[in-house]
Amino acid sequence: MCTCDRCKAGFKAATGMDAPVKLDMKNPVAMRYMGFQAGCGKKLRAKMTAAIKAISPENAVDKVDYLRSESHTDIDVPIWVYSASSNARQTAFSGQVCDNASVDYMGFRYRESSVSPGVSALRQWQNIANAGSTSLYVIGRLDNHRDKSTFEAHKKVFRFHAEHEDIVVGRTSAAEVLLVCKGQVSRSDPESYGWIRALTASHVPFDEVKASGVTESALEGKKLVILAAAKDLQLVQCALLDALAQKGGLLVSSGDSGVRGDATSLKCLGVEKVLERKKTVSTVFTLTAKDAAVLKRSALSPVIAPGPEIRLCEYAPTVKQYLHTEPEPFYGPPEIAYHTVETDNPGLTVNGFGSGKAVYFPWFCGSFYHSEGYTNTLNVMRDVLFEICRLPQIASGLHPSVELVLSKQENKTIVSLINASGYFGNSFFDPIPMTGSELHIPGSFQKAEALNGGLTVLENGVLRLNELNNFEMIVLEENQHENRFYRSWYHGQAHGS
Fold this sequence. Notes:
This protein is an alpha+beta fold and 497 residues long. Helices cover 28% and strands 28% of the residues. The relative contact order is 0.10.
């Protein structure tokens, strides 16, 4: 908070009030002062932009001509492997130019030492796949930069971008799934991270938006919306989501998404009242025979841990309930500590709403999967995606470490594959080559071309990639007749469970 004489005088002239001495979130004068300073910042940016454009109209200005973000590495901060993809998704596919800079150095304290070449290359390939720019951030000049160990990795990606600019630039997302995140770009958000990991490992193409970005235009063309602990949704946004479900769309909510106090603002969930926010230690969910018939993957690992917290709710009579809760037993050795009670509190609910449906996890499945990585957590998330929501499985045989992105350009569908198998704990190495990858891309295509050296065979609608190294971009030319399958998969399938 600036407290210079000019700002204090300007605030006094504008409001008649004295500027506060310190920032106090409970002080309405301080909050008004912060709003005043934000307005000053906007005016300054407008003046700067005008001055820069007067020099040359081709000069690009952040937040005017493009949106800049960063994928960085810092000491003692866990690396988010999908940082670049997530940043690019939240900007590039929204219609704005994304400049997500891959930061070359190891935190500002060690700014002369470069990060691993593996993570540098991965971030740049993620940028390209998600319609972002190739962008490198060093401190100082390239010619006298002492640690050039990442430069060769960057060169390969920049060269690919230059050689295939006609395909790389000007794409739009082909995803019909939208993930609504709680946090801001580049900010830690465990529930969103868990869902991003689950969707990516399951090869489900999706877009991302912050909770504040849930608008009519953001929902256009989306058949499934996933709310990852997006509790700050406004009433008007909840109304848009209810309307989506009413018209045949699908909604998945986890944790406290859309929850206000003891009730939910999302009518489609069928949650009439939140009775209790219960801390859990050794509480588990179990499957009945009815559950197993729907949750087929979960039946393979039928005891599911909910993590540290669950919401006990009152549900509408229309709500179907799955996963029975076994409450925390007495703590002690196994001969005296075991479950003896099964309650009616579900771990998963499905509610028909108009022509669509809404699914609710009354626990933070994304956060628990992100922190612990258990297969049984992923299984129930995949059951919701593929069994209840009936998403098409594009690449069920593809390794989970490979990220798949679908985009479009005129009469072309572009498949981007990013091999992240070089990620090992908190280290990044060259990825392990993948062979024999098989993809079932919905649509009708007459030609397939791999731009990064992989040999691709298109046969009977099945796409086979003989080898995948670090990255591949496959251009599929659609048949001349309208390619309708992918745009309408949900009509015939989404209401079967």
